[in-house]
């Protein structure tokens, strides 16, 4: 605990907002008060409303440079169970190009300007000065982590940090638009267009929570996508309140994690079949 906490304080003092990662190197889940995003989320998250939860409760949005928060009671309890540290690159004005394998590294060496490089378990993180929208799977084995994302802290690495180049911004800009699910795969039970047993706010929070669950998956993405689709359909699949826009949001989140349009459609169809829809 002491080593992780001191590292977090050192990062915060350098202007890099850290957050603890639990076993499995994933963020800590919501506390009871914030479960299912009942709190409305953080101001810098997609869901509306402020959250005054004092704990490391909202993944990347909980990252902070405030030493009083980092050493507070809720955070200290988290550090006791933490396995590693992550940070919010965008909050530090940085962008991380996450290269997941040797082929991705070889591509980066041929196409990207040299910059500060940090070895990872399977590849490398290339750090650039400047922030942008995060994007996963911009090309095989390459993710971009900056705003609204977290990256594992693995040290300062080597080399001088270069300014964020346009070629990296272009990777996200040129990423193919997610394919909307085929209408034949989206046939839903008809209803009044509004959930008869839940409020529209409840539905919106449920969709936002489902997007977050998929986005934060670090392993077993395919299984996470299926279970998330199953959870959404079990609550709203029979009342007719789900629209194509809601479902497209879920498909978009899954495709951002590397799922293909076909896998999304298959997972959705299998979830409906399991529930008898």
Structure description:
This protein is α+β, with helices and mostly antiparallel strands and 277 residues long. Helix content is 37%, strand content 14%. It contains nine helices and ten strands. Strands 4, 5, 6, 7, 8 and 10 form a six-stranded mixed sheet that branches. The chain has a four-stranded antiparallel sheet with strand order 2-1-3-9. Helix 6 packs antiparallel against helix 7 and helix 6 packs parallel to helix 8. The longest helix is centred in the last third of the chain and has 16 residues.
What are the main properties of this structure?
globular, six-stranded mixed sheet, single chain, alpha+beta, 9 helices, 277 residues, four-stranded antiparallel sheet
Write a brief caption for the model.
The chain has 277 residues and is an alpha+beta fold.
Which helices and strands appear, and what pairs or packs with what?
Layout: H1 2-13, E1 18-22, E2 26-27, H2 67-70, H3 73-81, E3 84-87, E4 94-99, H4 102-111, E5 116-119, E6 124-129, E7 135-139, E8 142-145, E9 151-152, E10 162-163, H5 166-173, H6 200-215, H7 221-236, H8 244-256, H9 261-275
Parallel strand pairs: 6-10
Antiparallel strand pairs: 1-2, 1-3, 3-9, 4-6, 4-8, 5-6, 7-8
């Amino acid at each position: 605990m002491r080593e992780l906490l001191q590292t977090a304080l050192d990062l915060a003092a350098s202007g890099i907002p850290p957050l603890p990662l639990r076993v499995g190197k994933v963020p800590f889940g919501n506390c009871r008060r914030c479960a299912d995003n009942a709190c409305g989320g953080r101001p810098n998250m997609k869901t509306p409303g402020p959250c005054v939860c004092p704990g490391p409760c909202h993944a990347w949005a909980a990252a902070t440079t405030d030493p009083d928060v980092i050493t507070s009671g809720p955070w200290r309890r988290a550090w006791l169970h933490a396995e590693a540290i992550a940070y919010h690159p965008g909050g530090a004005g940085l962008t991380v190009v996450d290269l997941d394998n040797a082929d991705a590294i070889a591509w980066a060496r041929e196409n990207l300007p040299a910059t500060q490089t940090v070895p990872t378990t399977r590849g490398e993180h290339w750090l650039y000065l400047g922030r942008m929208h995060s994007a996963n799977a911009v090309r095989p084995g390459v993710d971009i982590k900056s705003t609204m994302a977290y990256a594992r802290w693995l040290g300062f690495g080597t080399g001088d940090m270069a300014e964020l180049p346009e070629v990296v911004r272009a990777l996200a800009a040129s990423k193919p638009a997610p394919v909307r699910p085929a209408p034949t795969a989206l046939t839903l039970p008809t209803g009044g267009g509004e959930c008869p047993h839940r409020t529209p706010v409840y539905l919106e929070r449920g969709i936002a929570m489902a997007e977050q669950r998929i986005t934060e998956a670090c392993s077993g993405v395919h299984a996470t996508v299926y279970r998330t689709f199953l959870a959404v359909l079990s609550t709203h699949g029979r009342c007719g309140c789900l629209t194509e826009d809601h479902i497209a949001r879920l498909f978009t989140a899954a495709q951002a994690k590397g799922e293909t349009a076909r896998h999304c459609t298959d997972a959705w169809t299998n979830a409906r079949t399991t529930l008898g829809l």
